[in-house]
Amino acid sequence: MSRRQMHLAAHFPGVNNTTVWSEPESGSQIEFSSFAHMARTAERAKFDFMFLAEGLRLREQNGAIYDLDVVGRPDNATILAAVAAVTEKLGIAATVSSTFNEPYEVARRFATLDHLSGGRAAWNVVTSWDTFTGENFRRGGYLAQGDRYLRAKQFLDTVMTLLDSWHGDEIVADKAGGEYLRNPDAGRFDVHVDQFDIRGRFSVPRGPQGRPVVLQAGDSDEGREFAASTADAIFTRHGSLEAGQAFYADVKRRLAAHGRTEDQLKILPATTFALGDTQAEAEERGHEIRRQQVSGQTALRFLEQVWNRDLSNLDPDGPLPDVDPLVVDADAPRVSQGRAADRMYRDPLATAREWRERAAVNNLSIRDLMTEVTSRQSFVGTPQAVAEEMERFVEQRASDGFILVPHITPTGLDEFADKVVPILQERGSFRADYTGTTLRDHLGLAPLDTHAKV
Amino acid sequence: MPDTPLHLGVLLDGAGRHPAAWREPGARPAELLTAGYWADLVAEAEHGLLDLVTIDDSLGLQSADPFAPDDRTDQVRGRLDASMLAARIAPLTAHVGILPTVVVTHTEPFHVSTTIATLDYVSSGRGGVQVRVAARPDDAALFGRRTIPTDRDALLRELFGEAGDAVEVIRRLWDSWEDDAIIRDAATGRFIDRERLHYIDFEGPHFSVRGPSITPRPPQGQPVVAALAHRAEPFALVGTSCDLGFVTPRDAADAHAVIGSIREAQAAAGREGETVHVWADLTVVLDDDPSAARDRLARLDATDPYTDDAGVFAGAPAELADLLDHLRTAGLSGFRLRPAVLPDDLRQITRGLVPELQRRGLFRTGYEASTLRGLLGLPRPADRYATAGSAR
Q1: Using CB atoms, which residue from A58, A84, A178 is nearest to B88?
Q2: Which of A95, A133, A136 would you mutate first to test chain B, the one with the most B CBs within 10 A?
């Protein structure tokens, strides 16, 4: 059987309402044992990698720290260095901002992580721009939204220049001859661009993968182009098969212009899942999880994020408010701060109109509506049905695989690993074992030329 | 055991402290970038019941010239980020403290704070940090965001002042979550009690940091902060901000004077009641046969002449035990030994010196605490923002 192979990654449950913390089995989001547990589960299931998002400032709403979701997390790259000690093959991926770091530090950390994991590191490049987050950092906050991709591109290029400053063959360590380094210029770099003016010698010799695997998550035209030019894999949120296919075709089409082939960029939508012994049981469970994820309070907070007003006096089981959203400049402070989604609804008035119509037609309360509109791609069914549906997405070019987002820390992946993965393996759509050692191997990416450009 | 047994740590750097170390028969110079090499070293330190290891680091590539880069190819060049390395090793050990060196010039105090808090989590309370400054213009050029003053005294005042601010921010962030901030209160739907989280609102000439941390208070509350100190400004940093200072006295009298400077700063900062350890650094070449040790040092120096900022001792473990016992009378509570050659001199410490000190009742015969603060006799401190259960 030669089914198209899928790639699978695990998203360690994050600090948003997808993660349900009120269940008895919900464990610590901060103790190392939780990270070790999920990593071991992902590795047992032969996943490509485990992914950790980044925290730079706690979220706030209505002027106070947001307290309804899980709050608090470790430094993600540091945790992953420890995860490397308790795994052997699993890829380890961290989001690191290109705004609140300098290229030299990011290059050091990922080159080090690649060495310490034997070639399993991946970097999800994001660019933040808000002054709110900047209040925790030297450089402060402000990056004009229009400069985001300029900075991201120059940041990424600069990190790659640093990583490529060692070619991998410099260390001779010849005790008898007394030659440690072959080349007195190893690590030398000189970068002069708008955002960075740096020179010297990079301190970390080339890691096993040469460069970490590069992940991105942009959805705008600019973001897609950026990913097509530089990323090895892209995270998406496109839910339906049709939306996924459109995105997939659009991004893959862009690769040729950058001299790249379609297999050099993997498209991995994030997805949740709910399993059951029957379809009805799985749907019941899925519904229950959604109700836990969107409590009445959470529904009001979501509505506030669009309305940009304090709506805490509303009844979540009642209708949408008559008042319209408060529209402010793109860069002005908002009711909600520190969320990537804060700027997702670009035209809040139009969103409000659309939601009111939808609520009226289907007779939905605020909570009902928020449960619907915040719903993300989810596979719901028996393990067999979920496996087949995932294959359908991959066969029909809606994705190259999935980032699975469990709703329980740290055991939320166990059931998927135990019940769905064996079916995928049996059907020949997912690896029965690792065939390589590096994350590039797992993702089917060709090794980099060890003598990369100087 | 006497009332005040010694504390012992080791400094781990590349193939050893001596620049010719990598050419020794037992050296593993081709493995310096592998986790396995460091795991073996730290396991050896733990075998010897040491209090802690420090893992050396620098921003730029190593250089034999302390003030400028060089282009030598006959010494070890290239290293791993020490914080990441510390986290990689932590789950493989259970008792020994782990302190990476972290440069606080140019870098973000927020990231340093969450990184070391995370190290404390992955080591279950054995994390710490040795802070250092980066004073060279070529270090600044790696970041390209700042010019370095040319007057060296002004520069060191500025950098150590900034380091003090960085430690203040790092420590405030560790306290910015009270221990009981996570409540998981299903009845009210609240995961945290946000009244138990605190803005730190630090403002200084080099950075302002609002807080709170993204990371809950680490297991030790305050991981151990250390610094190496050679002159007045870092003595002040140790006395004002650190739990542990590494110093490089010429002899017991010099050690006594240095400790005096640190205690003065400690008192000026209102910390008289707190324990601030002062340990002397010493580079060691050890052999059961003292003349073999001295021959080995001579051979290393013949290959690559070296003077250290700390004293260099070559001899038998028993002789070193005599020296440590003498120096401690100046008021030193411990020593950080710098093995000249790894793993050889580390094994001499753990298997030669440690048993010798144990015989003299000067060193522990088993780990007596599960956290680094515990090993150092430091209490788990109250959170500076907690208000004893009253209105918050």
Answers
A1: A84
A2: A136
Q: Rounded to an integer, what distance in angstroms lies between the CA atom of residue A103 and that of residue B387?
A: 41
Task: Clarify whether residues A107 and A158 are in a common domain.
Answer: yes
Using a CB-CB distance cutoff of 8 angstroms, which residues of chain B are in contact with residue A297? Answer: 189
Residue A450 lies in a domain: no
Q: Tens digit of pLDDT for each residue in B161-202?
A: 999 999 999 999 999 999 999 999 999 999 999 999 999 999
**Omega before B212 within 30 of 0, i.e. cis:** yes
CATH code at position A97: 3.20.20.30
Domain ranges within chain B, ordered by starting residue:
8-375
Among candidates B61, B107, B119 on the partner chain, residue whose Cβ is nearest the Cβ of A105: B107
Q: Is the peptide bond before B343 cis (omega within 30 degrees of 0)?
A: yes
* Strand arrangement, sheet containing A64-65: A64-65, A60-61, A336-337
Q: What is the DSSP pairing of strand A91-97 with strand A49-52?
A: parallel
Cα separation, A6 vs A216, whole angstroms: 19
Closest residue, chain A, to B211 (C-alpha): A136
Q: What is the pLDDT of residues B301-338, one digit of tens each?
A: 999 999 889 999 999 999 999 999 999 999 999 999 99
Instruction: Report the chain B residue with the minimal C-alpha distance to residue A109.
Output: B81
Q: What is residue B1's predicted lDDT score, i.e. its pLDDT?
A: 43
**Inter-chain contact B74–A78, Cβ cutoff 8 Å?**
no
Q: What are the tokens at A443?
A: 């993702």
The class level of CATH for B8-375 reads: alpha beta
Is B74 in contact with A22 (Cβ distance < 8 A)?
A: no
CB pairs under 8 A between A and B: 216
Q: Mark which of A373, A388, A407 sits at the end of a domain.
A: A373
Looking at A135-173, list the stretches that DSSP marks H as alpha helix, in order from N- to C-terminal side.
148-163
| Dist CA B229 CA A330 (whole Å) | 49
Domain residues for the domain of A360 are 295-373
Whether B215 and A31 have beta carbons less than 8 Å apart is answered as no
The verdict on residue A285 lying in a domain is no
Would you say B274 and B266 are in contact if contact means Cβ atoms under 8 Å apart?
A: yes
Instruction: Please list every residue in chain A whose beta carbon sits closer than 8 Å to the beta carbon of residue B191.
Output: 21, 67-71
- Would you state the pLDDT for residue B271? 96
Sign of the CA dihedral with A326 first, then A328, A330, and A336 last:
negative
* Residue A256 contacts B where some CB pair is shorter than 8 Å: no
